[in-house]
Amino acid sequence: MKKVAVILSGCGYLDGAEIRESVLTLLALDAQGIKYDIFAPNIDQFHVVNHKTGEISEAESRNVLDEAGRIARGNISALDELQPDLFDGLVIPGGFGVAKNLSTFAFKGSAGEVLSEIKPILKKFNSSKKPIGAICISPALLALTFGDINPTLTIGSDVGTAEEIEKTGSVHQCCDVNDCVVDTKNLIITTPAYMEGSANLNDVYQGITQLVKAMSAIAK
Fold first, then answer.
1. 0.85 surpassed by pTM
2. How remote is the C-alpha of 68 from its chain's centroid?
3. How far, in Å, CA of 202 to CA of 24, rounded?
4. pLDDT tens per residue, range 170-200
5. Rounded CA gap, 91 and 215, in Å?
6. Which candidate in 11, 136, 175, 180 is catalytic?
7. Between vectors from CA 29 to CA 192 and to CA 79, what angle results, nearest 5°?
8. Hey, is 210 helix, strand or coil?
């Protein structure tokens, strides 16, 4: 792979993109000599959460693209500018923003819906035989999108989330944080990262690195 698209869902694991996973993804890509462009939808977050207290800030509103720009150091584009034909693959870091802003998986599980803006992008990468990497809870987004083709995915070992994923038609496979699951048929690669809440930073990085390497290995 020469260049991939990275989609972020905000900034902060409780209401946006998981910051550590996002940065480690960019580091893993850079370490493999893979260029990237970063994108996020220009929409309001579902809600804003105080990351110190865990409480919802009822009176506050934030924009997903603006928040993701913090991680991207301003070098970011709106999701509607993403042209799959210009990239060799796609990576989606985790964080509750994936399940709240990019989909409604956090609230409806397997009955959830995918943001209308992102679904055709996912479909285009898949139909073009370009690998998609999903980290942490992001595999749930792929399960909602591709359940009809029965992809093999992992979110680690969380039983409840795995059951919801399998209700979509997807196959869940348990996986350690420092590893990844590779679906060579559907060109989908997934790794648990902070779905395992006690995961250490090095293991998360190793898992994301394995994901990036696997994407490169199966890219056509």
1. yes
2. 13
3. 10
4. 999 999 999 999 999 999 999 999 999 899 9
5. 9
6. 136
7. 80
8. helix
Kindly give the pairing relationship between strand 188-191 and strand 181-183. Answer: antiparallel
Q: Which residues, other chains included, contact 45 with Cβ-Cβ below 8 Å and sequence gap of 6+?
A: 10, 15, 16, 61, 62, 63, 64, 67, 97, 100, 101
Residue 7 phi/psi, 5-degree rounding, is: -110, 125
| E strand or H helix at 201 | helix 201-218
Which amino acid, 167? K
Cα→Cα distances 157→3, 85, 150, 179, Å: 31, 34, 19, 13
9 Cα distance to chain centroid: 8
For the question of residue 136 being annotated catalytic, the response is: yes
Edge-first strand order for the sheet with 35-40 is 77-78, 35-40, 3-7, 89-92, 132-135, 188-191, 181-183
Q: How far apart are CA 75 and CA 58, in angstroms?
A: 29
Residue 135: helix, strand or coil by DSSP? strand
How do residues 79-136 score in pLDDT, each as one tens digit?
Answer: 999 999 999 999 999 999 999 999 999 999 999 999 999 999 999 999 999 999 999 9
